Amino acid sequence: MFCENCGAPVLDDAKFCPACGEPVNATSAAASEPQPVQIQPAPAPQPAPQGAPTPPPMPGAVELDRNFGMILLLAIVTCGIYGIYAYYKISEDVATMCSGDGDDMPNYLIAILLSFITCGIYGLWWTYRFGNRIQANGPRYGLTIAESGTTLLLWQLIGALLCGIGPIIGFYLIVKNVNAMAAAYTAQVTARA
Fold first, then answer.
1. Less packed terminus of the chain by CB within 10 Å, N or C?
2. Where are the domains of the chain?
3. Residue 24 and residue 14: Cα distance in Å, rounded?
4. Among residues 155, 157, 138, which one has the least CA distance to residue 146?
């Protein structure tokens, strides 16, 4: 209970306020005392079954439906600049959807810089890891992604000999798989909300 004179907390069996010395009226103080609020503890989180992928944190929205034809057209019109931007945005969305998987890949812009330094070798390695990361996180969202990093790497290397369209097909496969993963990711986010 509280003192009517100064508002200081007073023990229930006290006759006088310890702060101001005023006599305490037990009946009126008990009536004016705010009732304690019962706080229920939050239920303890249940551990995930062993071997089950942990659900990702939900940091933000990802783009749902990238149009490969539009990306290709804008990349041609802008002499490849829009293609770099689109690849960067795709890699950022994949990082969001795959967070917590233990594979922290460098940003795509860093990959481009390291590719220049290594005469393109790092870019091939990055593409291989990127494809494997997408495939490895597919089951997290109930997806079976057939194309791995090896598939993308083969399209980059061998497919480039087919009039240069191999990297374009590899990028199409990335866009297709990321669109499927983004739809499943967004469905999980809205189901949790």
1. C
2. 1-34, 68-192
3. 7
4. 138
Distance CA(66)–CA(175), nearest Å, equals: 7
**Nearest in space to 182 (alpha carbons), one of 90, 102, 57:** 90
pLDDT tens for residues 87-146?
A: 999 999 998 888 888 888 888 888 889 999 999 899 899 999 999 999 999 998 899 999
12-64 pLDDT, tens digit per residue, is 777 777 777 778 775 554 445 555 655 556 565 566 566 555 554 445 678 88
Q: What's 16's DSSP letter?
A: B
Angle 141-71-133 from CA coordinates, rounded to 5°: 30
User: Which tokens sit at 72?
Assistant: 């290709």
Non-local CB neighbours of 115 within 8 Å, separated by 6+ positions: 121, 122, 123, 126
CA separation, residue 49 to residues 55, 79, 138, 188 (Å): 12, 49, 18, 19
Contact status, residue 181 vs residue 101, Cβ threshold 8 Å: no
Return d(Cα 154, Cα 131) in angstroms, integer: 11
Number of Cβ within a 10 Å radius of residue 177: 21
Q: What is the pTM of this model?
A: 0.65
What residues have CB less than 8 Å from 123, skipping those under 6 apart?
A: 111, 112, 114, 115
Residue closest to 71 by CA, chosen among 178, 186, 159, 150: 178
